[in-house]
Amino acid sequence: xxxxxxxxxxxxxxxxxxxxxxxxxxxxxxxxxxxxxxxxxxxxxxxxxxxxxxxxxxxxxxxxxxxxxxxxxxxxxxxxxxxxxxxxxxxxxxxxxxxxxxxxxxxxxxxxxxxxxxxxxxxxxxxxxxxxxxxxxxxxxxxxxxxxxxxxxxxxxxxxxx
Length: 162
Hints:
The chain is of the alpha+beta class. It has helices at residues 5-54, 138-160; strands at 59-65, 75-82, 90-97, 104-111, 115-121.
């Protein structure tokens, strides 16, 4: 069975189109992999600055915890050393919380002793402080305070086994 010239032309055009789309996906994938380290470092600095703004020097942000869940695109979890309780396993989560001013980065702290608690927004909110009151966004804050211990248990154990 032979193909006529018109069908061959369409197949060639389709092959070129598929090659271009595949090439674009490969470029995007490569850029994403190369930017991941920089992105994690920027979030780590943001978490450290937020912790220092509230309790200067008490917490030290350490290595990131690799998340193996769908929430990895919107959150980052870091191991944190606590100068007040050095033996305790403490973790910090940074996540976007919806607010009236749009999504804002929020930091939560988790320890086995205290559980998960909202810590602070990772922004300088100045006069708009009342807009970002965590009591106004209790549903979102409560969701992450409930979800964070499960993320830690699921992911911190697998990271320690690497």
